[in-house]
C-alpha cells in the first residue's frame, strides 16, 4: 500500500523571474508540530519570503504556513512567524560574506521532504533589471518557437 507522492511541498516560481540564481543551499527548518501537519497537507506559500542573516544565524521570514483547523486547538498559531534555518557554520559564513555585496540577497526557492524531514532550498541571488527580464522572456519564447518548428517538421 505504498503511495507515490511528490516530495515537493511548495515552490517559489517568481524567484526565477525576479532574480539571477547564483548558488543554492539546502537547510533544515525548526518547526512546531502544527506546522509539520500543515506542511504534510501542502498548506505553504513561499512567494514573499526571504532569509535574514543576523548574529551568525539564518532566519526565514515571510513563509506562510496555513494552520489546519483540526490540528491545533490548544495552540495559538502564527502562520508567518520567523523560523530558524539549520545550516552549517561555514555555509552561514559564506552567505554573510556574499549578502554584504551590493545587489545580493538570499531567498527560499523550494520546500520539500527529505528523509521524513522538511527541508528548504535557499539561494544566493542577484536582482534582475527590467531589461534582463525582457531578455529572459525573449529567450524563453524563442526556445518554445524553435521546439514547435522542430516538432512540426518531423
Summarize the structure in words.
The protein is α+β, with helices and mostly antiparallel strands and 154 residues long. The protein is built from 4 helices and 9 strands; from the N terminus they run βαβαβββββαββα. It has one domain (8-128): Small protein B (Small Protein B, Chain: A, Beta Barrel). A hairpin with a 2-residue loop joins strand 4 and strand 5 (57-61). It is globular and about 60 Å long. The N and C termini lie far apart (42 Å).
Secondary structure layout plus pairing:
Blueprint: E1 8-11, H1 14-18, E2 19-29, H2 33-40, E3 44-45, E4 50-54, E5 57-61, E6 64-65, E7 83-86, H3 89-99, E8 104-114, E9 117-127, H4 130-153
Antiparallel strand pairs: 1-8, 2-7, 2-9, 3-6, 4-5, 5-7, 8-9
- Helical proportion? 25-40%
Shape: globular
CATH C-level name: Mainly Beta
Quantity of strands, as a count = 9
CATH superfamily: Small protein B
Task: Record the strand order, biggest sheet.
Answer: 1-8-9-2-7-5-4
* Helix and strand run: EHEHEEEEEHEEH
The major β-sheet equals: 7 strands, antiparallel
CATH architecture: Beta Barrel
Low-confidence stretches: none
Tally of DSSP helical segments: 4
Mean pLDDT across every amino acid position: 84
Amino acid at each position: 500500500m505504498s503511495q507515490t507522492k511528490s516530495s515537493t511541498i511548495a515552490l517559489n516560481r517568481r524567484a526565477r523571474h525576479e532574480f539571477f540564481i547564483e548558488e543554492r543551499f539546502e537547510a533544515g527548518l525548526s518547526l512546531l508540530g502544527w506546522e509539520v501537519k500543515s506542511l504534510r497537507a501542502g498548506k505553504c506559500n513561499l512567494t514573499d519570503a526571504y532569509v535574514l542573516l543576523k548574529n551568525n544565524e539564518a532566519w526565514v521570514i515571510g513563509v506562510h504556513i496555513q494552520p489546519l483547523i483540526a490540528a491545533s486547538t490548544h495552540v495559538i498559531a502564527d502562520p508567518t512567524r520567523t523560523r530558524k534555518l539549520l545550516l552549517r557554520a561555514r555555509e552561514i559564513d559564506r552567505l554573510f560574506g556574499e549578502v554584504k555585496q551590493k545587489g545580493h540577497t538570499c531567498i527560499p526557492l523550494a520546500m520539500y521532504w527529505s528523509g521524513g524531514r522538511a527541508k528548504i532550498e535557499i539561494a544566493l541571488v542577484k536582482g534582475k533589471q527590467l531589461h534582463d527580464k525582457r531578455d529572459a522572456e525573449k529567450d524563453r519564447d524563442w526556445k518554445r518557437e524553435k521546439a514547435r518548428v522542430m516538432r512540426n517538421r518531423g
